[in-house]
Design a protein that fits this description.
- 41% of the residues lie in helices and 16% in strands.
- The protein is built from twelve helices and eight strands.
- Strand 7, helix 11 and strand 8 form a beta-alpha-beta unit.
- Helix 1 (17-30) runs parallel beside helix 12.
- The structure holds phosphoenolpyruvate.
- The site of phosphoenolpyruvate (PEP) has 13 residues, from strand 8.
Length: 249
């Protein structure tokens, strides 16, 4: 079963417009020969339209949106609007949105549904905090996140999703999961997809690792049989490290 390999860059709330456009140009110029990996960038949504003009082979997504069609939701952006400005993917369930913005499982589920309705590719983020890992409850915890907000989808719908496993203790900390920890969780995630759907569907869904992944450790992480790429934060803000990661398969 050949699964899509994906390297996605979550820029978070970083960069000014000029820097963002420069980064898009450089990544795009330096990746013209990378045909075996989908590269997706998640810039601040304000920059979507300008990026759309120069993105060439790169795919562009949003870090956030509000799951209602339109209306009195001051300050929010709808999925139809972000699609209108060139986004094809959305990060949903990122731990920073869960923790800082108190996004609940139910709200995350609504975001998944809104993205599916508008044919936006879902990158569904899940992962445990440190105290859960220390209790050795990470499998129950992550499985529940998937059950609560993702596994209600139909077979056809789940096939439009990518799962990103991001242990919270590894995000932005410089402390990467070991290859054993990453492979163990990815293999469990795949087995839960098989349990709720089928082995064929489980074998088709890409599962990305996120959490201090960089140009140095990507190679061994991506060599794991169940790791199909990475969701990259800090190291996606520089073309050189992002491209090095993309070339790590
Ligand atoms: C992230 O926030 O999705 C992430 C993986 O960040 P970092 O690579 O900086 O740990």
């Amino acid at each position: 079963m050949i699964r899509k390999k994906i390297v996605a860059g979550n820029w978070k709330m970083n960069l000014q417009l000029e820097q963002a456009l420069e980064l898009v140009k450089t990544i795009s110029n330096q990746s013209t020969d990378i045909s075996n990996v989908d590269l997706i960038i998640f810039p601040p949504a304000l920059f979507l339209l300008e990026i759309d003009k120069i993105k060439s082979q790169l795919k562009v997504g949003v870090q956030n949106f509000y799951p209602k069609e339109n209306g009195a939701f001051t300050g929010e952006i709808s999925i139809a609007q972000i699609k209108n400005c060139g986004a094809s993917h959305a990060l949903i369930g990122h731990s920073e949105r869960r923790e800082i913005f108190h996004e609940s499982e139910e709200f995350i589920k609504q975001k998944v549904d809104a993205a599916i309705i508008h044919t936006i590719g879902v990158i569904f983020c899940c992962g445990e905090p440190l105290h859960i890992r220390e209790n050795n409850s990470q499998f129950t915890y992550v499985k529940q996140q998937l059950i609560d907000s993702l596994f209600h989808l139909s077979d056809d719908e789940i096939l439009k999703c990518v799962v990103a496993y991001e242990p919270i203790w590894a995000i932005g900390t410089g402390k990467t999961a070991t290859i054993e920890q990453a492979e163990e969780m990815h293999s469990e995630i795949r087995s839960w997809i098989a349990e709720y759907y089928s082995q064929e569907i489980a074998d088709s869904i890409s599962i990305l690792y996120g959490g201090s992944c960089n140009g140095t450790n990507a190679k061994e992480l991506f060599a794991c049989p169940n790791v199909d790429g990475g969701l990259i934060g800090g190291a996606s803000l520089q073309a050189e490290s992002f491209i090095t990661i993309a070339r790590s398969f």
